Amino acid sequence: MGAAHSASEEVLELMGKTGFSSDQIEQLHRRFKQLSGDQPTIRKENFNNVPGLELNPIRSKIVRAFFDNRNLHKGSSGLADEINFEDFLTIMSYFRPIDTTADEEQVQLCRKEKLRFLPLGSCCSSCK
What we know:
Blueprint lengths: L3 H15 L3 H15 L4 E3 L15 H9 L14 E3 H9 L10 H14 L11
Antiparallel strand pairs: 1-2
InterPro entries: CHP3, EF-hand-dom_pair
GO molecular function: metal ion binding
Main location: membrane
């Protein structure tokens, strides 16, 4: 995440974009580095070593969601080959609870983003 001065500016920007605290961003950055093997990007194969994920029945859909260009705000379709830390934070922010202090418009926007994250009918066969 860069030098100390620019890192604090970068963290503030990421906080604004994702809603994570600086401590949460730091923890997620450590996790990102662990997953990526200290590389600047993560590829789909990096998720093969996530404990418990290999047993998840919707594993492939979870991993695919991390690389879906729609979720990354990088187009209307297709998959990215790799994602950087900011992309990783963007996807992780979909899993944050809705802020209880948000106004109704912000709550609706957040819900819309969360619903857009999951393709229709992707959660389970009983949802169809």
